[in-house]
Amino acid sequence: MNKHAITAGRIGGSLLALSVALVAAPAFAQAAPQADAAAPADDGAIVVTGIRASLNAAAAIKRTSPAIVEAVSAEDIGKLPDVSIADSLARLPGVTSQRLEGRDQRLSIRGLGPDFSTTLLNGREQVTVGDNRGVEYDQYPSEFFKNVVVHKAADPSLIAAGIAGTVDLRMLRPLAQQDRIVALQLRGQMNGIKKLNPDGSRYGYRASAAYVDKFADDTFGIAIGVSATDAPSQNERYNAWGFPNSTATGGALLLGGAKPYVQTNKLQRYGAVATLEYQPSDNFHSTLDVLYSKFKETQRLRGIEFPIAPDWGSGATVQPGYTVDNGLVTDATITGVHAVQRNDYNKRDADNFSVGWNNVIGIGEKTHLTVDASYSHAKRTDFLLETYTGTGYGATGASDTLHISANKNGTFDIVPTLNYADSSLFGITDPRGWGYNGTTAVVQAGFLNRPSFKDDLFALRASLDGEFEGSSVISGWEVGANYSRRKKTSAFKSYFLCPTGAGTDCTVASGTTQFAAIPQQAIVGSVPLGYLGVPSMLALDPLYLYNNSLQGVYDNRPVSLVRDNSVTEKVWTGYAMIKLDGDVGGKKVTGGFGVQVVHTDQSSDGSISNFSNGVVTVIPASGGDKYWRVLPSANLAVEVADASYLKLATSLTMVRPRLDQERVNQEFGIDPSKLGSTDPANSVFSSNGGNSRLRPYKSFNVDASLEHYFPKGGYVSLAGYYKRLTDYVDPSASFVYDFAAAASSLSPAQQAALGTTLGLVKAPNNGGKGNIKGFEATLSLPFSLLTPSLDGFGFFGSGSYTSSKITLASNPGNPITLPGLSDWVANASVYYEKNGFQVRASYRYRSKFLAEVAGLSANPTYRTAKAEGILDAQIGYEFQEGSPLAGLSILVQAKNLTDRPFITYQNDDPRQVIDYQRYGRDYYIGLSYKF
Known about the structure:
- The protein is mostly beta strands.
- It is built from 7 helices and 50 strands.
- The radius of gyration is 30 Å and the shape is globular.
């Protein structure tokens, strides 16, 4: 029996695993096997390395899979072909990413955002340090992965498959390596924007080391890796509040307000990985994977909030002589402005730990038992500090005169008259008098949010697979079961911050200090906001202010008290499948068909808050639901001609809602000002929150792919797909509820005036439906296929078009597009690699899309993002055999050479820019040495 046939990743042991095992290196547990970046060559063959080896290995995975997949393969040990995992994945057909803080973090697959896909590590579902389910890929050091595979079609043995796709991060397998490996990498980083904050930095580094070896006659292997990253980023930020039709400008759109910032970030991440692999015989194979990653991100933000439009309570005046262009005020002078100067500090600490143990046991010649146990853990805590300074409390100090003028990029220059760097003019205060704790005014000179998240997933899986004898096509079978338990706990604490001194609970009525001088020790200098016309502002140390000049009081508003919750999901999955591998009419046929049966027991613990007559009551609450889902799927690949494949797939898949939507929490309120109303939509009673009985999205999918592979490397493919979505979660849903039981909390006089006990409960439901359809085209072309004189040159590119239509029951007359969907996505890379030299330029484009961004109080909200095109490039050299420096490589990279900003706008009007974030270019220089 072939030793590698049992090695081929049997948690699943699908036909995908079997077919790849026959042509590639031994695989790893629980996932489809990987192809080596540079497979051993036959005598006289040319060994291909680097970029071409990476493309060839990825193509081998795609070609040998009966399902429709895309793949990225490392060029060498610990060396994915891009700066990060998300960068590499964003170059695959039909895949793109959204940048956050200058980094590619959120993936969109076939127009569906991160909430619609699942991330696996070696075939095992992973939790996340993010707020919901979507994995933030910078939590994983890219040096640890050999391949990353995106499954675009479901398979019965692929547990926790998403609707959009399933991303499988695959670690190296030591027994698949030919020799002992020791690899070291060191890379320096510089941001192209000069340091924006005096306590920030534009320089960073990244270092990693890997050791791979085999022992005991190649039956025991070990792979160990460590990684350290200190990565800076800078951000010139601009945010507009919106554009009201202002009465002060004759109904023309006027900038409501703006807050320009300069932001410096530092991401520090340390990680370690270990794989132990043991295969003493053909009948036993055991693999243990452990991954740990710890990262801390620090952000320093300094800026000014300028209230402008009188319609939104600015108290300012628009002077005559303003300019209106096509309904938008593009130039104006504003007097009486009381701005809020901000010095903020954000810190995020997160830990990610994953362990998995896979065992494959041979039972006879053709049957195998696979048992896999795994645990994934993530924990994150945030410290989000805001501090405010102004000329006086509640708009009582010196006012400013601004001149605003629109720029071509949609931002506004804001040129002030006041000197915002004058510490004698500004003090610690609540400049606008915005502070309010739900019942009375507070002196809010700052605010502190301290959310924390904990996410744990335990899974146990067992499967049996075997082969059929005497059949020309039906080659094997597999049955299995998986149990998983996931619990995510979200906890929130927030505090009002006011100047130290008199008063209690920061309230104005108690005599809280309303204005305090800025301590000299808190001043670290000044920073310009020159990119928008502000010459300079005070640069303060917000941590000094927090520790020495501010006092805190717990935020006990109803909306704050009702946020803590936990969501638990216990999931049983059983599956059975038949595998196909044989000839039909002289054509090679592979594939499989089968079914998953999924039982879910979901529950949530939280609270319901009641705010009535100035009194807040918090009541514990729990809820949940149990349900079944049956998910059939089938994959078929036919070699219709030599090296040409037609692949077809159909399936019913599901993906669970956002975890914050599954919470039981509700904020119940009574508004006595609406006592006489008889309209439930305008009732005295209302409630707003989550839905612990929310069901998963469902999708019926049809996929087709036509692929042709060239004899000397490269391929061309064309794919099409259709998804019919049902049970789509409507986040704006509401229903009428009879709050008669709450009427007793009203006074007798109020009960007599009560118009109705009916009111609206706002909670998400499965009231939406829609469809997605599109196509993808890919070309991987070594130019040596055209002429030998171009040997070493090549091209890899793809383009995709996707359209969607989603209808929500809450607004059936206004269909929406999917969040994260760009109609057009294109990627193109040209490269040269020969005799140790390596050059590559990559460009990716996505058309406008609905982006998820942080809104008020960091709540997720959606806005249209402008189209963007990003150019990256790299050049390197690897010293060849015979050189005294053999094994040493030098690489220079540049990211975002187009210096493309991230821009969002509203009302389908690109002039109404809400967010503008310029991250600048990033430059890297690295050394790697392998021996």
